[in-house]
């Protein structure tokens, strides 16, 4: 009898100890600064503090849970209807707090550290992201999906991006190299190095970044440096989806190989300059431009 009673008491005690683990919906993920962020349950009110973060949250399947964005959060279309709380560099903290987010998605180098620290001091969980690799894009989507409880959608999106980029890598890994200059800005004139995600797209497509060895991710360069490098193809994004005028300056240098061969190409910046799933579409377009350059030899 004592043994049975002891068994019952022990079983009840064990169940009581296990119940919090069985009923808890706590979710955790490690952000891109190495911090482990845990929530008592999946986030239902998310603030995305950069356009890239907004896209990634939607890609993770949590768009319906976004209650705050910042300026230029223009994709997907539904993001334009969400209240804005300033810009990624100048947040309206009072407006943000009034929306009662239970998760804030920050951008590692895009949001001022003091503002993210202020949110952290207020007890708001801040999850900082900034993908620097193709795998980093997929990983960010998966981690956001875990925190939002939308794993089914998010993991599928991450896997589709991963497989799409792998397919491009396989297709172009034996392609003959094309010396490329990618113009990321006009005044001052700026490019990217090989460590930048756009630099990785150039490599993926079988291009050779003529400024790839420079130290800075986004180095300032001169017109003379571009002329000296004499790229076979020049690609630019411009300041808007239909703004191609950045290529006009290079058309004025007929001695440039890219100009002489007609390899001055426009790539919509939203498809290539944000580390989101749309980069797959931008990479396909980028690779097509380099294929065109090869065909013109």
TrEMBL record:
NCBIfam families, per database record: TroA_like (NF038402)
Domain Fe/B12 periplasmic-binding: 45-297
Source organism (scientific name): Marinobacter albus
Pfam families (alphabetical): Peripla_BP_2
Xref: Gene3D superfamilies: Nitrogenase molybdenum iron protein domain (3.40.50.1980)
InterPro entries in alphabetical order: ABC_Transporter_SBP, ABC_transptr_periplasmic_BD, Vit_B12_bind_prot
Residues making up the signal peptide according to the UniProt record: 1-29
PANTHER family recorded: MOLYBDATE-BINDING PROTEIN MOLA, VITAMIN B12-BINDING PROTEIN
Xref: SUPFAM superfamilies: Helical backbone' metal receptor
Full protein name: Cobalamin-binding protein
Key words, A-Z: Signal
The keyword Signal is assigned to this record: yes
């Amino acid at each position: 009898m004592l043994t049975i009673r002891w068994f019952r008491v022990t079983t009840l005690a064990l169940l009581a100890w296990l119940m919090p683990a069985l009923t808890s919906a706590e979710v955790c993920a490690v952000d891109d600064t190495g911090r482990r962020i845990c929530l008592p349950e999946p986030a239902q009110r998310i603030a995305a503090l950069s356009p890239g973060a907004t896209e990634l949250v939607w890609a993770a399947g949590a768009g319906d849970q976004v209650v705050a964005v910042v300026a230029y959060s223009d994709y997907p279309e539904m993001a334009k209807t969400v209240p804005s709380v300033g810009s990624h560099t100048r947040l309206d903290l009072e407006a943000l707090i009034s929306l009662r987010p239970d998760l804030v998605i920050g951008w590692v180098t895009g949001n001022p550290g003091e503002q993210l620290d202020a949110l952290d001091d207020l007890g708001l969980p801040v999850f900082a992201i900034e993908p620097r690799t193709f795998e980093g894009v997929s990983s960010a989507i998966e981690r956001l999906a875990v925190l939002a409880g939308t794993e089914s959608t998010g993991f599928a999106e991450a896997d589709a991006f991963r497989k799409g980029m792998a397919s491009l890598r396989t297709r172009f890994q034996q392609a003959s190299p094309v010396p490329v200059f990618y113009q990321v800005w006009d005044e001052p004139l700026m490019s990217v190095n090989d460590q930048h995600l756009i630099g990785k797209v150039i490599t993926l497509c079988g291009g050779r970044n003529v400024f790839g060895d420079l130290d800075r991710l986004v180095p300032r360069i001169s017109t003379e440096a571009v002329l000296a490098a004499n790229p076979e193809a020049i690609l630019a994004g411009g300041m808007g989806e239909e703004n191609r005028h950045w290529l006009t300056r290079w058309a004025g240098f007929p001695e440039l190989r890219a100009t002489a061969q007609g390899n001055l190409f426009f790539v919509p910046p939203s498809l290539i300059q944000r580390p989101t799933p749309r980069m797959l579409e931008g990479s396909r377009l980028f690779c097509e431009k380099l294929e065109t350059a090869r065909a013109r030899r």
